[in-house]
Amino acid sequence: MSPSNGQRDLPSGRSNARAVVVASLAAAIALFVSSGGCGGRTTLTADHAGDDGSSAGSAGTHDGGKADTSVAGGGSAGGFGTDASPGCAVQVSAGYNHTCALRGDGTLWCWGSNWNGELGDGTTAGLSCENGMRCRPTPAQVTALGANVVEVSAGAGHSCALKADGTLWCWGANGYGELGDGTAVNNPSPVQVVALGTDVSGVSAGYSHTCALKIDGTLWCWGYNCNGQLGDGTTVLKPSPVQVTALGTSVSGVSAGTYHTCARKSDGSLWCWGNNANGQIGDGTTSGQICDNGMPGKLSPVQVASLGTSVTGVSAGEWHTCARTKDGNLWCWGDNGHGQLGNATTVGLSSPNQVTALGASVVALSAGDLHTCAVRGDDTLWCWGNNWGGQIGDGTSAGPLCFNAEPCESSPVQVTALGAGVVEVSASGGHTCARKFDGTLWCWGGDNWGELGTGTLNAPACNIGIRCRPSPTQVALPCS
Question: Residue 470 maps to which CATH number?
Answer without folding.
Answer: 2.130.10.30
